[in-house]
Amino acid sequence: MTHPTDPGRRRFLTRGLLTGGTLMLAGCDQLSRSDAMQRLFAASEGVTQQAHRLLASREALAREYAPDDIAPTFRANGTTMPREADYQRLAANDFRDWRLEVDGLVERPQAFSLDDLRAMPARTQITRHDCVEGWSCIGQWTGAVLGEVLARVGVRDEARFVVFHSADRYRGGEPYYESLDLREAYHPQTLLAYDLNGRDLPIANGAPLRLRAERQLGYKMAKYVMRLELVSSFAHLGRGRGGYWEDRGYRWWAGI
């Protein structure tokens, strides 16, 4: 396994993000209610992204751990069972009819089944999930390398971001979505994960597919992924900031 040259980098940048507070919150949405935190997030985003890029090379890997470090139970956060009828129908059939749609600014829009994704080049990694709420958990993830999926559809030159559309409507509200820039999307540890700790991904943790972007905080890692959309901007999405929580005041860049 590859370890970063500076193991303290992630802790340093996480502390910078939290800006001295522990942020041990009952739920992520509490943070977005603070006007002061919204202003802080907006002002610090560019600085944090620049600092991360300076400290980490393009291909720098997040730390990977030993099997003995895996938590007995990987903590589930946010929605643990989407209420949408279409999702529940797919879950009742063990996701045999589920398809991942990949479209937008691509040459060859496609729809992939779980079997299709499992047949693609895969990666297994043991990594730590860091939540902005203040907790961490180590798990083993296996999934299709996102860069391989993008290669199948042919990303057009004008595309800048990958948007991850979820089956979830968090607390019955607006559709949940997230996004990464192409630099992070093509990182070797960025996966579309279908297994957790050697077994099929549980529904509570995002089945049938969730994003793992190991150099980002947990709120970037969308669960219940149904569609990838390649876009040049976020103007047509939500409130235009690139993600469900970003639309509510979180920083779009969540590198650690």
From TrEMBL:
InterPro entries: OxRdtase_Mopterin-bd_dom (IPR000572), OxRdtase_Mopterin-bd_sf (IPR036374), TAT_signal (IPR006311)
CDD domains listed in its UniProt record: bact_SO_family_Moco (cd02108)
SUPFAM superfamilies tied to this protein: Oxidoreductase molybdopterin-binding domain
Ranges where the Oxidoreductase molybdopterin-binding domain occurs: 94-232
One family name in Pfam for this protein: Oxidored_molyb
Gene3D superfamilies the UniProt entry points to: Oxidoreductase, molybdopterin-binding domain
Bilayer-crossing regions: none
Name this polypeptide is given: Molybdopterin-binding protein
Organism of provenance: Halomonas pelophila
